[in-house]
Amino acid sequence: MGLLSKDALENLKKYAYKGVDKSLVSKYVLNPFWTWFVTLWPLSVAPNTITLSGLCIVLFNFGTIFVYDPAYLAEKGGVDVPRWVYFSCGVGLFLYQTFDAIDGKQARRTGMAGPLGEMFDHGCDAMNTTLEVILASQALNLGRSWWTVASQIATLANFYLTTWEEYHTGQLYLAEFSGPVEGILLICSIFIITGFYGPSFWDQGIISLLHLTNVPFINQLPDLPLNDSFMVFGAFGVCFNVLSSYGNVRRAMRAAGKSTTRPLLLLLPFLVSASIQVFWLIHPRYDTPALIQSALFVPFLCAWGLQFAHQVGRMILAHVTRGPFPSWDWMWVWNMVFAVDANLPLLFDRPSIIQTDAKWRAAVVYLTLAVSFFAYARFCTLVINEITNFYGKKGEDGVWKDAVPDEKRKT
Does some domain include residue 369? Predict the structure, then answer.
């Protein structure tokens, strides 16, 4: 059975992208550059090809990091990653941002703008989010730590909020300081600084670095390491985005004469998903290292990221088809089963039934990664097939019969 009903497919005809970008950096610096850069691409290049090229660059950076630091320990584990790797991560992320920005411009140049393009764009963004969390945490010398988990939660929360906001308002809002613009440039800067000074640079106390240790009152404050300070800054950013996104949703709901509090319930799916993942991570193990301290930490984060990409993909699909908001995910049951199994010593003072040793725990984590990948891949395949089949149907004579106008069918 297909994912989309006939009414949902018909609603695709009514979809039109709307966005608001209040960033001064985007308006006066990046957008003129993007407008010029897109002209370098032939009209024969599909917008989604540009988007995918950007993601491939990030995947290359991801692979490069783990060639030199396969255990994900950075300098805290005595691993010396060549400095050029961090420079390449900074350049790669900037190129990803650039490609991500011009794919829409290329779509308008070629007449290929449409809902499938937006879904593909958001899907790549969702996958890139977790990849950059892992890469940036390594560059910040955080490695296997709860700070990396906190960074994952904060970054995914920002993305979820933006998608949740777009679903309810019909517009993609980018504030004066947003993740896709200033946030990415900030992470690029982190990579470049790490390239010059190494990951241990971020272990310095912020007060010591600024030579404020002798300044009254300031010297009484905790001398937080730079990497920890960056995480605190991110927490404030999440709080600001929650208030900003809800303000936009509240205004949209009031204008439509709908409840202004009901949309808040649709934030619960993210909280449920993140809580299950954290519950799995906190499991007590006395015979093997805790999951967060083991080599399984990165595969675990990748599985989490794929599940999140699937979650927001369904949200975007609901947005472009005007369907109901997806509030349930069967992967929660999968994750909860193994989270409870891992925590049986804590909950009932009895050993795990499935994850009885390190070998079985590794099998479960990698199986979860595989299931997450195939579930998301299946979703993408079904959506692409159903939408493209709706936009054009091939007759017995081999000729495409238009279901919608030609410029829409090109999508």
Answer: yes
Can you say how many angstroms the Cα of residue 171 is from the centroid of all Cα atoms in its chain? 19
Q: Note if 122 is an active site residue.
A: yes
Helix or strand (DSSP H, E) at 402 = strand 400-402
Q: Residues 135, 139, 145, 147: is their CA dihedral positive or negative?
A: negative
Which value, to the nearest 10 degrees, does the dihedral of the CA atoms of residues 390, 396, 399, 403 take? -20
Cα–Cα distance for residue pair 42/34, rounded to 1 Å: 15
Total-model pTM: 0.90
403: pLDDT confidence band, cut at 50, 70 and 90? Answer: very low
- The answer as to whether 340 is a domain residue is yes
> Beta strand pairing status for 172-174 and 19-21?
parallel
Q: Say how far residue 353 (Cα) sits from the centre of its chain.
A: 33
Q: CB of 392 within 8 A of CB of 400? A: yes
- The active-site residue out of 122, 168, 283, 319 is 122
Report if residue 229 sits inside a domain: yes
Domain hosting 268: range is 6-409
- Cβ burial 271-290 (10 Å sphere, 16+ → b, else e): eebbebbbbbbebebeeeee
How many domains are contained in the chain? 1
- Give me the DSSP letters along 324-340: ------THHHHHHHHHH
- b/e string for 307-328 if b means 16 or more Cβ within 10 A? bbbbbbbbbbbbbbbebeebee
> How many whole angstroms separate alpha carbon 73 and alpha carbon 145?
10
Note the pLDDT tens digit of each residue in 137-173.
999 999 888 999 999 999 999 999 999 999 999 888 8
Residue 161: both structure tokens together: 């909020």
- 411/240 Cα distance (integer angstroms): 36
Q: 399 in a domain, yes or no?
A: yes
